[in-house]
């Protein structure tokens, strides 16, 4: 019996070690391109050409300076914030209000209206991007910050409303009933009672929407034809166009593009994990 138990313990340890080894290997495969990009961006131009795969074999800010000034990544960086922050705020505010209405407010046609919103998750952007182009042009919103922000916000409203509805639906009905008995208005119930209880969902939705809009490539490319408000994604695509590709500044431009995303996700990782786990259980 002791021999069999020892064999079982050994097999369990071997399986656990194998799982850990596999996870470590997968982590290295996934992280290595990022490490290589950072290393290439921070090396001297000559070292990039002589030793492209050498990790941190030298240090220089020249590639980043070239990308920031010559490649106009400073302007692209500002444009990305001008396109991402307002559209994210729109999605979070409207989705939170919509999710509360669909979850807590009884009104005629609520079920049908919610399913209409959910249909937005099923319709791909490619099916209406061309008609939307002509509609924006007819409304005078083409090639403008307002127009692109509205498009970016509209692409995230369906998911945001569906996501926030799951959080509000799980809250006890006694909360708003007690607040109504105390004489609170619907806005007071929403702002003072319900909203503080779904902060994890709001945080997760904010980060997810910000990352999606920051990395959006097609919307700015289509609806900013002049390039006046070109963000980092399209700027990186057009960087060094018509010239020989210089890997150093290109890696620096890539690093400038992904660095805010990494910082935001690391800073809000706990809120994002809690929000999505809570939404999955509640949904």
Structural write-up:
With 283 residues, the chain is mainly alpha-helical. It has two domains: 2-60; 73-282, Orthogonal Bundle (MetI-like fold). Helix content is 77%, strand content 0%. The chain has 14 helices and no strands. It has helices spanning 2-41, 45-50, 62-69, 73-104, 110-122, 129-139, 145-169, 173-181, 186-194, 199-214, 218-223, 232-238, 247-267, 269-282. The radius of gyration is 25 Å and the shape is globular. The relative contact order is 0.13.
Spatial gap, N to C terminus: 47 Å
The rough form would be described as globular
Taking Cα atoms only, what radius of gyration do you get, to the nearest Å? 25 Å
* CATH superfamily descriptor of the largest domain: MetI-like
Question: How many domain modules?
Answer: 2
Number of helices: 14
Mean pLDDT: 85
Query: What is the number of beta strands?
Result: 0
Order of helices and strands: HHHHHHHHHHHHHH
- What is the percentage of strand-forming residues? under 5%
Uncertain regions spanning at least 5 consecutive residues? none
| Assembly of the depicted chains | single chain
Q: Under the CATH scheme, which architecture of the largest domain would be assigned?
A: Orthogonal Bundle
Percent range for helical residues? over 70%
Largest pleated sheet? none
Structural class estimated from helices and strands: mainly alpha
At CATH level 3, the topology of the largest domain is MetI-like fold
- Please report the first level of CATH classification, the CATH class of the largest domain: Mainly Alpha
């Amino acid at each position: 019996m002791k021999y069999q138990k020892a064999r079982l313990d050994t097999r369990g340890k071997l399986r656990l070690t194998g799982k850990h080894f596999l996870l470590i290997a997968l982590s290295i495969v996934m992280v290595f391109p990022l490490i290589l990009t950072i290393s290439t961006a921070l090396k001297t131009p000559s070292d990039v050409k002589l030793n492209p795969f050498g990790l941190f074999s030298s240090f220089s800010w020249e590639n980043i300076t070239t990308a920031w000034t010559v490649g106009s990544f400073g302007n692209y960086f500002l444009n990305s914030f001008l396109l991402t922050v307002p559209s994210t705020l729109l999605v979070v505010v409207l989705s939170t209000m919509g999710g509360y209405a669909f979850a807590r407010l009884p009104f005629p046609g609520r079920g049908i209206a919610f399913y209409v919103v959910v249909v937005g998750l099923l319709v791909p952007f490619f099916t209406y991007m061309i008609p939307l182009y002509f509609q924006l042009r007819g409304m005078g919103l083409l090639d403008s910050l307002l127009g692109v922000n509205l498009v970016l916000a509209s692409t995230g409203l369906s998911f945001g409303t569906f996501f926030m509805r799951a959080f509000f639906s799980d809250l006890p009905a006694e909360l708003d009933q007690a607040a109504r008995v105390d004489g609170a208005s619907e806005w007071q119930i929403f702002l003072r009672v319900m909203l503080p209880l779904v902060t994890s969902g709001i945080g997760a939705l904010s980060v997810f929407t910000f990352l999606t809009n920051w990395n959006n490539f097609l919307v700015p490319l289509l609806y900013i034809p002049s390039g006046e408000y070109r963000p980092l994604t399209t700027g990186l695509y057009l960087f060094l166009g018509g010239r020989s590709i210089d890997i150093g500044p290109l890696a620096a431009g890539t690093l400038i593009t992904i660095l805010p995303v990494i910082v935001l996700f690391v800073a809000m990782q706990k809120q994002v994990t809690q929000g999505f786990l809570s939404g999955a259980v509640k949904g």
